[in-house]
Amino acid sequence: MDRVRTQAEQNGYDQRVRLSAQAAHDISGLPLAGFDTVVLNSVIQYFPGTDYLDRVLCQAMELLVPGGRLIIGDVRNATTLRVLLTAVQRTAHPRASHEELQTLVEKALFAGRELVVAPEWFTEWAGSRPIGVDIRLKAGAAHNELSRHRYEVVLHKEPADMLDLTDVPSVPWGREASDLAELHRLLDRAGDSPVRMTGIPNARLVDEVSAAASAGVLSSAATSGRPIDPEELLRWARRHGRDAVITWSGEIVHAFDAVLLPEQRAVYGAFVPSGVAGRIRSNNPGLSRIVGRLLASLPQYMRDRLPDYMVPAAVVPLSEIPLTPNGKLNRRALPPPSYAQMSTAEHRAT
To answer: Which CATH number fits domain 287-349: 3.40.50.720, 1.10.10.10, 3.40.50.1100, 3.30.300.30?
Structure first.
């Protein structure tokens, strides 16, 4: 803060720039309906949970004028969290078997101390409010944790003179277009009408998702057509006189959707929420501490109340119950039990 204040003074902006430091939920001293733009960049991952996120967003919207926008940058994606953790654990334990990898990923899920949020959370949060939601993949040619597993959100308060993309007709990738040449012909037929392409294989995520699926950590849905880098599609669209709004696929983890427009416009509603039952919306960053205490006390608790033959040899904590597409328990996706963990927990409890 001192450095920014000094820079403002050196450049003659000290009378126009006001700096203060306070908690994200503390809006005291700030004028209601006094800002065109509020930015929360690379900070919500440190929030204690979505209840706090909800509180901060509600208060931030009160600070905006009608037509203002709230920019939320670097949001960690809960939908791809298992993919990311599989890649991390494979790097850290290159000789781990598939069963060991599954256990390591489950442990990492509970050990996470940062908030991760699925894109659906924001659309559901804004559902009953006069707010337009614009969710986009991070721009850039690099393939790394930021571009693969984070995204940007812009919440528009009482959006006016903006294009709502919610009802743009959808064309699944691979049906009428499975590469950029076929996409060009499709757009020529569409003329000036917007076109939504859904389920485009994301070249940034293909390798990581393949590794997660082979290890049994993730059930990977099939896609058609060659994988496309989102940045490649964006540059291609601009070369052909169009704009591309790149957002997550609501149906397939390793795919993205793109809405092709005849010109650049201020828009919202590009992301179509998932209808998949049980899809995670967020994590609980404080869960690791709770689970650790539970595992330490659970063995003795069960021995005091159950006959010996009913006491399980191992207890495996799960961040979510894996389900089949029919909503039933997916037993094949359950991680193998760690018997050493049970004995360690018992030792700690005694």
So the answer is: 3.30.300.30
List, for residues 107-127, the tens digit of each pLDDT value.
888 878 899 999 999 999 999
Q: HSE-up of 77 (CA within 13 Å, CB side)?
A: 26
Contact 63, 38 (CB under 8 A): yes
> Residues 249, 90, 247, CA angle at the centre, nearest 5°?
15
Of 86, 30, 25, give the one whose Cα is nearest residue 59: 25
Q: How far from the centroid of its chain's Cα atoms is residue 324's Cα?
A: 21
The pLDDT tens digits for 176-217 are 899 999 999 999 998 899 999 999 999 999 999 988 988 888
In this structure, which topology does domain 26-268 adopt according to CATH?
Rossmann fold (3.40.50)
Q: Decide whether 26-268 matches 287-349 in CATH topology.
A: no
Tokens 């601009």, located at residue: 238
CA angle in degrees (0–180, nearest 5) for 37-41-46: 130
Query: What is the phi/psi pair of residue 96, to 5°?
Result: -70, 140
Beta bridge partners of 323: 329
